[in-house]
Amino acid sequence: MTDTGFSGEQQEYLKGFMAGVEARRGTLLPGGGEGGAPPDALRAAQDATIARGGKLVPQEDAKREKHPLDRWEEMAARAASGAFPKPIDDFIGRYHGLFFVGPAQDAFMCRLRIPGGILSAHQLDGIAEIARDCAGPYADVTTRANLQLREIPAARGIEVVARLAELGIIPKGTGADNIRNITASPTAGIDPQELVDTRPLVRALHHHILNTRDLFALPRKFNISVCGGGAVEVLEETNDISLRAVETPSGLRYRLTLGGITGHRDFARPTGIVVKPEEAVRVCDAILRVFIAEGDRTDRKKARLKYVLDRLGMEGFVGLVEQRLGAALERVAEADLRHAPPPAKHGHLGIHAQKQAGLNYIGVVTPVGRLTLPQLHGIADAARRFGSGTIRLTVWQNLILSDIPDAALSAACDAIAALALGWQASNIRGGLVACTGNAGCKFAASNTKRHAAELAAFLEARIAVDAPINIHLTGCHHSCAQHYIADIGLLGAKVERGEDLVEGYDLHVGGGSGPEQKIGRMILPKVAADALGPAVLALLGAWMRDRAPGET
Ligand code: SF4
């Protein structure tokens, strides 16, 4: 042994190793060129765009300068100093789940990542404590069965992300050009009508995404949904990748559809392909890698999967996926697929028996998705006392308490009522969905959450609608509340009133999802918010008077 603590043989080995490092110096950075490590997926896709003569958009330039996942330290230092980021730095910060939402609010918003919308009472309590200490005293349930914390001062941003991680919630990639929270059947594993419990697949996909750096190289955001055939609608056809459980002559598979983006008036398209559950992660990975290679990095408006499919055609795109997989995908004719019964409209609310004898789930109404601190703690407490400590968020901006024995149902309902929440809603309020709106989002033309609450109260006082309807209010064309697939879809708009501009909406009708799948059409532009109630009331009155039997 020498005084370095290494044996002579070890020292010789180290000398050789360091000589190799010296020889390769300058070529070791990702994409470092000839003789170095191969370029990562992001650099390779950008290089291909440039080689074709394309000019990268500024967001791609920022990613090219340094991979956003490698910029945690500078983001953390900026936030710790109390400063909010400039736009392009904010874009980078979103890779870590923090969004600067100025000028609507001089604050960060943190979007969580809750795979399939399922979390534990312990996590919900922890989220409420983070909101109490570091954010506004509430949490919003989103249309991706997720939670958002808002009004976070700059200096508390990093603490929010760190404390979430300590709860097992990693908000990495919940904004910017990444794969968003995976949505799935919220009644997975408890639903009498489901064909498969989606939880194992969702969990595997979630961890595959979080732990595969190449999948943070997308040209634009990406949505994935997994439907097990349960009674609660998942809106899977609005996703870039949608997997829906079906029975085939060869057994259970997921039917694959691609390219849904209802804000651009397109549902996910059939591919004719079915996927075995155990192969779904690998197939999703291959689809994502083709999207990374082929997606448009020169025009943000054309950077979603839909436009790759428009350009290559479905067969062309699937051919590239099969090339990556090194095998043909399985195809089954639509006529040979057996689907679960369709989900129930407003099936996300109310008391329902589970497939486990003697157990029930309760769909709780959460008005426009907002839960206060006492409600967050109260829901966690009810889940623990009466159920299995499980809370399930839905894409309808509400939540489900599961695993409640028959004998505890009444007490559980009392506990929910004591929180000023309920499990029943009118046919108007049961499908009321609103995005953040201009109280917290700079893109919004209107205060969607406030107008949604006012509209529901106005209508409920004047009309008893006898069938469930969905009313969605979205603040801008990004369509987070998916106005095109609602029975009544309201898109924020500025409305001229004399010399002033007031908040209002373009009124759409006739949209639908699932069995009622259809893109709504605008029938009345620029309705001022204070004229919205009478306009929608007249519309509902005419529908109830003139409809054919069963007409939506
Ligand atoms: Fe903001 Fe527009 Fe999304 Fe509403 S739809 S939350 S206004 S980006």
UniProtKB/TrEMBL annotation:
InterPro entries noted in UniProt: Cbl_synth_CobG-like, NIR_SIR_4Fe-4S, NiRdtase/SiRdtase_haem-b_fer, Nit/Sulf_reduc_fer-like_dom_sf, NO2/SO3_Rdtase_4Fe4S_dom, NO2/SO3_Rdtase_4Fe4S_sf, NO2/SO3_Rdtase_FeS/sirohaem_BS
Domain Nitrite/sulphite reductase 4Fe-4S per the UniProt entry, residue ranges: 176-327, 432-546
Nitrite/Sulfite reductase ferredoxin-like domain segment(s): 106-166, 352-418
Keyword field: 4Fe-4S, Heme, Iron, Iron-sulfur, Metal-binding, Oxidoreductase
Entries under Gene3D superfamilies matching the protein: Sulfite Reductase Hemoprotein, domain 1, Sulfite Reductase Hemoprotein,Domain 2
Pfam families: NIR_SIR (PF01077), NIR_SIR_ferr (PF03460)
Record family assignment: Belongs to the nitrite and sulfite reductase 4Fe-4S domain family.
Name listed for the protein in its UniProt record: NirA family protein
The organism of origin for this protein: Roseomonas nitratireducens
Classification lineage: Bacteria, Pseudomonadati, Pseudomonadota, Alphaproteobacteria, Acetobacterales
